[in-house]
Amino acid sequence: MADAEEPEKKRRRIEDLTEKMAVDGGHKDGGCDWDGRWNHVRKFLERPGPFTHPDFEPSTESLQFLLETCKILVIGAGGLGCELLKNLALFGFRLIHVVDMDIIDLSNLNRQFLFRPKDVGRAKADVAADFINRRIPGCKVVPHFKKIQDFDESFYRQFHIIVCGLDSIIARRWMNGMLISLLSYEDGVLDPSSIIPLIDGGTEGFKGNARVILPGMTACIDCTLELYPPQINFPMCTIASMPRLPEHCIEYVRILQWPKEKPFGDTSLDGDSPEHIQWVFERAQERAAEFNITGVTYRLTQGEPVNKETIPAVASTNAVIAAACATEVFKIATSAYIPLNNYLVFNDVDGLYTYTFEAERKENCSACSQVPQDLQFPPSAKLQEVLEYLTENASLQMKSPAITTTLEGKNKTLYLQSVKSIEERTRPNLCKTLKELGLSDGQELAVADVTTPQTVLFKLNFTA
Amino acid sequence: MAATKTSKEQKYDRQLRLWGDHGQETLENAHVCLINAIATGTEILKNLVLPGIGAFTIVDGNTVSGEDVGNNFFLSSDSIGKNRAQAATELLQELNSDVSGNFVEESPDKLLDDNPEFFHRFTIVIGVQLPESTCLRLGSVLWHASVPFLVCKTYGFIGYMRLVVQEHTVIESHPDNALEDLRLDQPFAEFKSHIQSYDLDSMDKKDHSHTPWIIIVAKYLEKWLSEHNCQPPKNYKEKEAFRQFIREGILKNENGIPEDEENFEEAIKNVNTALNPTKIPSAVEDLFNNEQCNNITSQTPSFWVMLRAVKEFVHNEGNGSLPLRGTIPDMIADSQKFINLQNVYRKKAIQDVAGVSKHVESLLQSVGKPPESISENDIKLFCKNASFLRVVRCRSLAEEYSVDSVNKDEITSCMDSPDSEMVFYLMLRAVDRFYQRHSRYPGVYQVEEDISRLKLCVNSLLQEYSLNVNIKDDYIHEFCRYGAAEPHTVAAFLGGSAAQEAVKLISHQFVPFNNTFIYNAMSQTSATLHL
Fold it and tell me: What are phi and psi of A10, to 5 degrees?
């Protein structure tokens, strides 16, 4: 950073600033502040330093920016979300929106500290916003008891920075895709004002990570998808006829016995229902006894399959990761320091370990590279194989892709799973070959999926 | 088995999956002391109250200032002017009704003057932003009372933690990538006779494809040994040949094409780790050589009595090996074959535990203690974790600060790397020195004038300890710039880190750091230093 001021001028300027700070503890806003309230923050906004971002200019206006202008979106009001809201509010961020589609459960209370036993059943976003607004005078958190997919680009465009405390890779990818869709290019050059930084945090037990994503510029979620290995499922033959572990017995009941016996009518298994879990537990014990397997417990039953509802979680890891994320929000909003570039990994099983590295962009990333994805198949391949590739490939990991294309000038749906009538109508296409379906070499396929708000373009390359 | 879980079990479910009911019990019996209810302290305590420690006591003689409320979630503006310990206790207490919160409106220095034994009652003491003299005094009291002491500090964008504990034993360290204990290189008698019951050549296809890979490797290893002068495959070439040997055992159909036998593929994949020689980890061997292990008295903690018993077992019935862990990983197999194999390992493990128990009994007898002093369950847990036992010993603060025993090597070698976090440790020491001289921290009011004063402190520090290192002026400027500010997110990061270390110390599960942790929020990096 250039500091060409003469030493005497600089000294006097610094003196002025610090004098002002010592005397003027408050500022001009609505009167909810008190003397010294922002002392801890102001030292980083009003004093020059040797390690600040090159763009940093000491000023009293930065604090005003945080208090009156900077708009932050927090996604998730759970383990990370509660911590993020606290951290941002205490740094002076006041215009905060929070989105969460969940309601409060008793098992949340060991770490989601904005909730109390009396709040069980209420919307997380509402209770969290309420608590913060009452505890931190002046803070105006706006809650949204909604899914992120309920909003479109006009909603997301209003924020300066978005920070995620999600528990689902699908949701992360969707958010990632949404911000990429907001990017605008002029003559192939990215317009920096269309970039909304995305700070993403994740935790599991004693492990966590925090990353800074500048969509269109740095590695996005999909660029590093291989870092999230697909979940391991037990093979069906093991579950159906050759169980060895208590988990196999539980899965048998959950996947095969429940749909057959329908113990509570036509309802699907509800992981939050003690009656449902108890039924599964008892049947699993019976099956285990048949095969001389020990170890079926209520806790294990509740935890199968390992999903977001039962991933081990503690307050401390969430505190660490949310703190790192909020520090990055502050740095980006104020240029106080150079932001993390771009990925932090944390693990405190044995001592405390952090590792910081720069995740690289993927040249042909299906989300951010703007390059049509390559699909290589022989014309004799069945559509089913393409579908399997889209779901099983480690870099794509789609959940239920809908494939459409243009044939003879008309839009044609080749296969779509999420609407029953269309699924039935297009299912026969899965057994047809690409040639039979009328597809040609170089054909463009548009694929929609829950992992992205925009369709992904694929180019079909016929192999021998 | 109760259908309805208590609401406490439900509330703590996600953390019980990490440290179990027995771990939770240690938390609920713990009484944590926090000194100074500033943001770093209340954040640490929040992360201990939420998981349900039994009780906490905040010691703080200060009154709440406007500045305090600004960065602290557990102080509100209407508590300005009130005692800080009391104000924070109220808002922390309401996080969890299972926890009992207390406060003492007193400075730690006064308590050390009048009643240092006050601190003996705590399971752990966490001191935040303590001046050097208070820290050293308290450190000495707690060291001699064997109470773990965690020193924490948030200073600008730097976080600091120092663990002070004489000896901390860990049975359940929960290592991330533990090797299996299969004993394929030295099969025990029951395992050998179990393998005898298999004849791979005469099995039908279904049985052949569902034989556990452990059996397959064991069988093929037997053949290999007989053909290679009892020498197991050692180098890459031999292991490749061994893998090929197994691959040839895959059944072929009538056209000579190999069938799809996943269990054989598993065997081939696992050859490398399966052939690892069974060895006592060096960390455990070191423990065997410890004074406490070899000199059992009636005062010896049960960890060392059990360790000695395991050592005796190793040198007698164990034939040089630790008690068998008794677990095997899941693998392709039919239920019966798998369960039978699993039971062979389980039974042998139970036998080994019984052997260790006898040694425990005779050791306890030899020092006049009843055999019930150490329970069966404790011995069982100890044996299961025998390969993963850890003992952490930290140097005292007196040792760290004394000119005679300062760890010069660690400091100078770290300072050789330009990016080392060690420079922040030295700056924190210099800042403490500044406080001692000027009764305030640098840069709280003015930056520029304090820079030269801080530089004098840096130089006197380096001189006193004869540290031939260079600290760039930029760091001195930055530490003046901080003005002892405590930005909330850095306090929160430390809050999570310190709380988890406290949980480790209370539960004796997972391994604590040793002994200094520095977090740099500017670069989002950290380091553990041994000072």
Answer: -65, -45
